[in-house]
Amino acid sequence: MTSGWDLTLTQAIGFALYVWVLSRVAVKPVVGLLDERKATIQRTFSELDQQQAELTQLKADYESRLARLSEESAKREAAAQAEGERIAAELLSDAQRRYQDLLLKAKGDVDREIAKARISFRDAIAQSATSAAEEIIRKRLDTPLQHSLIDRYIEDLRRVHV
């Protein structure tokens, strides 16, 4: 019979051989696959981190561009408003100038018409005086008639100057 030590030694050698064969045949390829998978996962995470960093940078760039565009838009709007106000001021100034020109022209026209009316009125008074003088000459002047005609002439002159 064999001793217990022989059996234990045989079993230990068999188990060691089994572990060695298993490590060569099964464990190394599985560990290699696991290491390879781990490396792939690490590369993927690294690429994801890099892509996330790029996306963060891209987002920051877009936000910066959006802020600049918003700023430019506000500046253009302010410039357009200022230009509109300037044009409105020019139009108002031009309208006021034209109004003043028309007012001066109308005043000149009125003054000319008044002058013409005065001349016409003076001509009418002169004609009236001439007619009165002719009437006096025809009737042979007497003193009360003469005073009456002179008073009427003076009254007409007063109306002309008023």
Describe the structure.
The structure is a single chain. This protein is mostly helical and about 160 residues long. It is built from two helices and no strands. Helix 1 packs antiparallel against helix 2.
Tally of DSSP helical segments: 2
Please tally the β strands and state the result: 0
Instruction: Report the major sheet.
Output: none
Q: Give the overall pLDDT as a whole number.
A: 86
Which class do the helix and strand fractions yield?
mainly alpha
Q: How would you describe the shape?
A: rod-shaped
Give unreliable regions as ranges.
none
Radius of gyration: 62 Å
Written as H for each helix and E for each strand, in order along the chain, the element string is HH
Give the distance, in angstroms, between the N- and C-terminal Cα atoms: 169 Å
Helical coverage, percent range: over 70%
Strand content: under 5%
Which key phrases capture this entry?
162 residues, mainly alpha, 2 helices, 96% helix, 0% strand, rod-shaped
